[in-house]
Automatic annotation (TrEMBL):
Name of the protein: Integrase catalytic domain-containing protein
A GO molecular-function annotation: RNA binding
Annotated GO CC locations: nucleus
Keywords noted in UniProt: RNA-binding
Gene Ontology biological process terms, A to Z: DNA integration
This protein's record includes keyword RNA-binding: yes
Organism field: Auricularia subglabra (strain TFB-10046 / SS5) (White-rot fungus)
InterPro entries: Integrase_cat-core, Integrase_H2C2, Retrovirus_Pol_polyprotein, RNaseH-like_sf, RNaseH_sf
UniProt xrefs under Pfam families: Integrase_H2C2
Domain Integrase catalytic: start-end pairs: 100-171
PROSITE patterns: INTEGRASE (PS50994)
Length: 171
């Protein structure tokens, strides 16, 4: 009889297998415990049931101290679970619609696309869009473009043709 089974009334040994409240006790062997979690979590039949579901499936047959924390660490480290898990609550600041402009070049949208593969010494594109006409103007630039550089590109490529907008929207 194991020392564990002889010391605690909730542990029983039968044919060399120690049980705790009717479930197989898993000794302190992290590789064995991980194999058990993998069997109840990663297999196509299990289908990555998450923290609670995995623990519930395991606890039908096995037990060890801190099983909840062990399963949590395993599931939190599962690449597939992290990529497909549903997110609850807001992921970003709420978006509010802005009113459509009444005339061309009243409101412009400005953004930088990049980094891109380098071409002719540039690795990004400054994009300016008129919200009213949807006209797009692009300028080659660098991802390290400063606000002063953005203003310079705007003056050189947009302002000279269309003037200064009432509103400038950018992230």
């Amino acid at each position: 009889k194991s020392s564990l089974a002889s010391k605690h009334k909730d542990f029983v040994e039968t044919n060399g297998i120690v049980e705790y409240k009717g479930r197989v006790y898993v000794p302190r062997d992290s590789r064995l415990r991980e194999r058990i979690v993998r069997a109840f979590h990663d297999t196509p039949v299990a289908g990555h049931p998450g923290r609670h579901g995995t623990r519930e499936l395991i606890e039908r047959h096995y037990w060890w101290p801190s099983i909840t924390a062990f399963v949590r660490r395993y599931v939190d480290g599962c690449d597939i679970c992290q990529r497909v898990k549903l997110r609850h609550g807001p992921l970003a600041a709420p978006l509010y619609p802005n009113d459509p402009p009444a005339r061309p070049w009243e409101v412009v949208l400005v953004d930088i696309i990049g980094p891109l593969p380098e071409s002719h010494g540039y690795n990004a594109i400054l994009v300016v869009i008129d919200r009213h006409t949807k006209l797009v103007i692009t300028c080659p630039t660098h991802v390290t473009l400063t606000s002063e550089g953005t203003a310079r590109l705007y003056l050189d490529h947009v302002f000279k043709r269309f003037g200064l907008p009432m509103k400038w929207i950018s992230d």
